Amino acid sequence: MRANDLTRAGGQQQPPRLTPTSTMLLPLVHDALALLFQLDGLFLRLRNVLVLDRDDELIDVMGLEGVPIPGAPIEDVEDAYWRVRDALPEGTEEFVDGTVEEYPPTPDVLLLVGADGGSLVHLTSIEVAEADLALLAAFADAVDRAAGPRPGPGFEALTQALGELGRVPYYAWMPEGDEAAVARWVRQALSMVLHSPFEGPRGAADRETLSNVLRYAAGWESVEVDLDEEEAADRVALSMVRAALAI
User: Fold this and answer.
1) What dihedral do alpha carbons 217, 220, 226, 228 form, nearest 10°?
2) Which residues contact 228 (CB under 8 A, 6 or more apart)?
3) Which helix (H) or strand (E) holds 135?
4) Cα(203)–Cα(197) distance, rounded to whole angstroms?
5) Could you give the CA distance from residue 146 to residue 151 in angstroms, rounded to a whole number?
6) Which of 156, 128, 153, 155 is nearest to 139 (CA)?
7) DSSP letter (8 states) at residue 170
8) Residues 166 and 159: beta-carbon distance below 8 Å
């Protein structure tokens, strides 16, 4: 008998350890998703897979340890990032890449359509581990601190890495500028999972409205919404765009 099959005294079996999860209601906005997907290159740089030499040329130094980040080890943060990405609906990568203008038919994604027949936004609900969200938030906070005027001890390597990234971006879509510019980009890229589009005086009502839409249209590919639902969808989509693009 395996150790985890043994029962406790009194004949009760030990309950399995459960990872606390958070259910997120997400408007799947292309611009916000595209930024989130671009973060994988940043993690490569911070893990020292590629660094700059004296001539500002990228060189491969596989095997070196990653940049030390207080409270958010880069390996753990990267693992959390990929788990969150994997929780997104099937077809998200194709939607982000522009292979398709709309998600492929899937019961996990609902396309909201206005009364005039125009597409409003894709809507989904995903479950992610609270610990993964906490790691991503800690990482964003650490990057903000490293880019600040007084980072403090332990952030020197991260500050230097952000400066190198802004000097010679790894990819064309990465930010060019100082450490603060890179930190803003990181925060914007993580807005898809760290920013709630249901803030403000109408946030709670909008969440309830769109949750009800998902509930009654479960398994459908698209649904025509009424005026109140359309306005709620417009508000949350705009909120997500503003957070991602810092409008």
Assistant:
1) 60
2) 209
3) helix 130-146
4) 7
5) 5
6) 155
7) S
8) no
Residue with tokens 């952030």: 155
**Nearest-angstrom CA–CA distance, 217 and 191:** 27
Q: List pLDDT tens digits, range 91-105.
A: 999 999 989 989 988
pLDDT in tens, 180-212: 999 999 999 999 999 999 988 999 999 999 999
How is residue 78 written in tokens?
């990267």
Phi/psi at 60 (nearest 5 deg)? -90, 125
Closest CA to 87 of 143, 136, 138: 136
Q: Is 140 exposed, middle or buried (0-12, 13-18, 19+ CB in 10 A)?
A: buried
As a whole number of angstroms, the distance between CA 164 and CA 156 comes to: 13
The tokens of 133 are what? Answer: 């969200």
Q: Which residue has the tokens 């398994």?
A: 219
